[in-house]
Amino acid sequence: MDYKKYIAERINIDGVGSDEIYSLIVTPPNSEMGDFALPCFKFSKILRKSPAIIAEELKAKYVTDDIISEVAAVSGYLNFGVNKAGLAKSILSEILGKGKNYGKSEVGSGKTVCIDYSSVNIAKPFHIGHLSTTVIGGALYKLYKYLGYNVVGINHLGDYGTQFGKLICAYKHWGNKEEVEKGGIHAINDLYVRFNNEADEQMESEAREYFRLIESGDKEANEIFEWFKSLTLKYVRTIYDKLGVTFDSYAGERFYTDKMQPVVDELKEKKLLKESNGAQIVDLEPYGMPPCLILRSDGASLYATRDLAAAIYRKNTYDFYKCLYVVAYQQNLHFKQFFKVLELMGKPWANDLVHVAYGMVSLEDGAMSTRKGKVVWLEDVINKCVEKAFTVVSEKNPDLENKKAIAEKVGIGAVIFGALYNNKIKDIVFSYDRVLSFEGETSVYVQYTCARANSVLLKNDRKANIPDNYKPNVQEFEVIKELASFADVLKEAAEKYEPCYIARYAVDLAQKFNKFYFDCKILTAEGEAKDFRLALTEATLYTLKSALSILGIGVPDKM
Ligand code: ARG
To answer: Where are any strands of DSSP class E within 283-321?
Structure first.
């Protein structure tokens, strides 16, 4: 809960808005001065009174309740004391009552959010560059569901383009069925790379013909294409399973083949289409952007044309409240352009389209190139991380049972968390050692904290029983405050499209819990203190697990 807001709303000063009061409230360094304080110096001028008198008068008017139970005026400051016992009891009861549903809400009820994410390219490598879109999109998907929204996960497949002509041509020259069937996406990618390295003019022209054949509905060309597509999807689904992400629709670029003409017609009718060197464009110069290309001079459609058709289709089909595109910032201009075109077409909902842009991920050795086959496959990153997790986990606890299953959760969690911990727009350098560290801001640290909490609870046979009037000490109250802010963190993460807020929250909560764990005895405490601490431990475990599960990260019982 936002105490500052709560306090600000309960203070009236003529000529000063509650937003300003809110921004003035501070957290005193020393809790003897209260949990929150409002310095009254700034109001002196307007009210023509001394800060001390203002503080006294505000104190006299302030009505305490079971949230803010103390108020005092001290040398020009108005100090507030939170009702710690009351807050502790109510938060713990709420969490233990709701269990893994703590923080869930219905704010999104009746609203649909479409999330376009991962959006892989058929027959191309699923590489480390797709990590962020997949896990950020996956986390937003779960977050919005958690908040009661109806969510549609869309994998806008890259399954349209001249490269498929090249691929079929390469297959016809060098490929064979068994090899491709066996090698799957890797074999297909090898063919594509080989084409780019070795194809001569003759093959290039054959490739164009194959592309034309796909487009014109030729049976054989389409069968080969569909086969490549199914092999790609089969492959990427194994990775999605590991990362815990799901989709409700795989309607990719091809799906819009027959839905682009109406868009072109509408653009024409609204006099937005212009000819430029034989191509059809929408002029965006007045908006400081290069033109949006709609049809090439040979009549072929473009990426933007398909996105226009897709946006309209999604609006008609899902009537979304928001449609998010989790796509790298390299495509900033593309999104700005086609959003603008929709606005010019008079679609009021163009404002509900959001480009959720994110930065690049590279490995420490700099590997990332997507050209000429030198790519880092996401699958390899995941496998390597799980392998390393096995070593790390075994070193920490050699007697652990089910090390393999635990390493899987730890390793995959580390890959996801590594990509989610920073603000999404930042470029990140992925380091195996860093993401797998037990110390520091990692999923491993949070998972280990969960295992610690779990082991405390397992050693106790008493059912957590929350005492009524227990006044928490400093360490306990720090945990309580953190637990109490979970719902606000989720709301904020959803509003800003920033799963990293949840990742950071999990680390903060784990840190506060560990401080409490090391400073206060739990199992050897007595009476109410023991009851309270067990309840606090259980509530922390539920909350950490929920936070991680929204990010797609599982929690082992032991580590
Ligand atoms: N397949 C595209 C790429 O890899 C991303 C598609 C994103 N979604 C969209 N509606 N444009 O760059």
So the answer is: 292-295
CB atoms within 10 A of CB 109: 10
As a whole number of angstroms, the distance between CA 76 and CA 120 comes to 60
Residue 515, CA distances (Å) to 199, 339, 484, 521 in order: 63, 48, 17, 11
370 or 28, which is more confident:
28
- Helix boundaries (H) for 283-371: 303-318, 332-344
Is residue 502 within 8 Å of residue 482, measured between CB atoms? no
Please state the pTM of the whole predicted model: 0.91
- Give how far Cα 483 sits from Cα of 162, 265, 404, 497, Å: 53, 55, 32, 21
Give the model confidence (pLDDT) of 165-189 as tens digits. Answer: 999 999 999 999 999 999 999 999 9
Residue 285 above 90 pLDDT? yes
Q: Which residue has the tokens 């899902």?
A: 318
pLDDT of amino acid 394: 96
Residue list, ligand 1 pocket, CB within 6 Å: 116, 119, 121, 156, 158, 307, 310, 325, 327
Ligand 1 centroid distance, CA of 308 (Å): 13
What is the number of other CB atoms lying within 10 angstroms of the CB of residue 265? 11
What local confidence, expressed as pLDDT, does residue 366 receive?
63
Residue to probe by mutation, ligand 1, list 119, 232, 255, 337, most atoms within 8 Å of CB: 119
Please give the single-letter amino acid code of residue 17: G
| pLDDT tens digits, 505-536 | 999 999 999 999 999 999 999 999 999 999 99
Residue of 449, 446, 478, 453 lying closest to 535 (CA atoms) = 453
Compute, in angstroms, the gap from residue 204 CA to the centroid of ligand 1: 25
Burial class (CB in 10 A: 0-12, 13-18, 19+), 373: middle
Token representation of residue 445? 């640290």
Q: Of the candidates 482, 452, 473, which has an alpha carbon nearest to the alpha carbon of residue 556?
A: 452
C-alpha 158 to ligand 1 mean position (Å): 7
Expressed in angstroms and rounded, the spacing between residue 354 Cα and the centre of ligand 1 is: 14
| Average pLDDT over all residues of the chain | 94
